[in-house]
Amino acid sequence: MNSKDIRQSYIKFFQTRGHAIIPSASLIPENDSTLLFVNSGMFPLVPYLLGEAHPAGQRLVNSQKSFRTEDIDEVGDNRHNTFFEMLGNWSLGDYWKSEQLNWWFEFLVDELKLDPKRLYQTIYAGSKDGAISRDTESEEIVRQIFNKYGVDDDGRIFEYVDKNWWQRGDAVGELGGPDSETFYDTGKDHDPKFGEACHVNCDCGKYIEIGNSVFMQYQKTDKGWEELKNKNVDFGGGLERLSMALQGKGNVFQTDLFNDAITKLEEMAGKKYEDNNRPFEIIADHLKAATFIIGDEKGIGPSNTDQGYIVRRLIRRAIRFGRQLGISQKQWTKGIAEIYIEQYKDIYPELNKHKEFIISELDKEEAKFEATLEKGEKEFEKLSDKISGAEAFDLYQSYGFPIEMTIELALEKGIKVDEEGFNEELKKHQDLSRTASAGKFKGGLADHSVETTRLHTASHLLLAALRRVLGDHVSQRGSNITAERLRFDFPHPEKMTPEQIKEVEDLVNQAIQDKLPVHFEEMPIEQAREIGATGVFDSKYGERVKVYFMGDFSKEICGGPHVENTGELGHFKISKEESSSSGIRRIKAVLE
């Protein structure tokens, strides 16, 4: 089965079992202050897992675009990608462990025809302090499943503590629970350098995790973890790894998800993938991820801060490995991006919609980096057996070397980099606020406090005013709202004039003075489009959404907290208007 068939089969399988199909959320988090990018199907659904009713019901299914920054250095080990698709199904207080585990194995064995003898399962061993018991319920269900398929369960079920416990956080009110992971035996021999004995979580790569059923069974209280009345199921399975298993490959990059891109790279480099696995895989992975991030509905181009820094790092790392392979063409990265756009245009139409923006950003970034890369490499070669913070920062500032690239090059030469010194140098330059590894991006809402809620409500009025003053091309490309101020990113080709800024302020303040009532209505997404609501219209399935109305001034799809009347907001003031990245402007504003 090709990857498209697997994706469609999964969604149809759960749809026939009463699950509503929901669209993939944006890769850029909306209302979570802890994430740089959406890294699983679960995070966009947090409000519903915490108890809010989902417009589509209690059973949901989708394929979610996901990106994990922490996996950048893992690419090249046969099973990791930075960008991947997470197949997900959820029960919001509906079915429980027996239905979930049985359905999942039915999908694998009966639908996909995977050999059950190559499947293994893990369960939760119980907490070390004994407060939460071993998940014997899941264990018994899994034993019955293996027996159903005529497979001896002896030595097929493993148990772990930390690896089979999931929790969202440590604060009171957070959810947690055991999980049960499914592993596939690739047939590879165990590599003894990873330990004498092999097991499903061994790093040798013989076994790969293809799915994880999380059972949100507990909630954190002042007294510890207590059982929830309405328990949730959150399942996630990697499409790339399922494709690898079903297509009989030993590596995710040998699947149809990457074949065309790697064939194109072989043509460009004049070299074979099998002789140069790691550089081919890094390029194919990084340019795919960059294409999806830039082409997102809230697309982010390369920059020196926040998500843009990650995009820049991905592109520049791909270019460096392209040089290593001997790719000599100019502006070659767009050729790989075009392959991914064509491959995914029917599934994620935003890529084709934003094709020009993707190509333009890749071309500009490649030109910038190529102009200084050769000089930077020469400067790097001059450095001795330890690279100081100042030297690393000079490579970054003068030659565009992300600190991670300097570290990687240094590792290849067996020399050290003073990372702490680099970070100290970086702090001296306010325009380079931080590297991606220095901390987490404060995107979305910092909290649900009164002040944050007021500013979030004001951001709706701001968007409506910007569209009136600048035009309908204005949309939200990212926001960051704290109790002190709001930050709002939007596409616009030029700096706003003082007159435009004042006009926007006046429109927002007039809407506040008019004391407009704020309410929401649930409706099909097509109806939201028809009435002129702003928001992301990327769904093919006609699911229901919440549209927040503020009089006749603003109609916007949203799931965050709002005040009940605009008169509660106070006086709106734009404190700064600046460039965020190429073609993207940023406004910072306060309520006085």
Indicate the radius of gyration in whole angstroms.
25 Å
Level-1 CATH class name of the largest domain: Alpha Beta
The counted number of beta strands is: 19
Spatial separation of the terminal alpha carbons? 59 Å
How would you characterize the overall build of this protein?
The protein is globular. Helix 3 packs parallel to helix 4, helix 6 packs antiparallel against helix 9 and helix 8 (306-325) crosses helix 11. With 592 residues, the chain is an alpha+beta fold. The model is unreliable at 430-434 and 436-443 (pLDDT under 50). The chain starts with a helix and ends with a strand. It has helices spanning 3-15, 46-49, 97-111, 136-148, 239-246, 259-269, 277-294, 306-325, 333-344, 350-353, 355-382, 389-399, 403-413, 419-427, 450-470, 498-513, 525-530; strands at 20-21, 59-67, 83-92, 119-124, 157-160, 165-167, 175-185, 207-221, 224-238, 386-387, 416-417, 444-445, 478-481, 486-491, 518-524, 544-550, 554-557, 572-581, 584-591. Strands 1, 2, 3, 4, 5, 6, 7, 8 and 9 form a 9-stranded mixed β-sheet that branches. A 5-stranded mixed β-sheet has the order 12-13-14-19-18, with helices on one face. Strand 6 (165-167) and strand 7 form a beta hairpin.
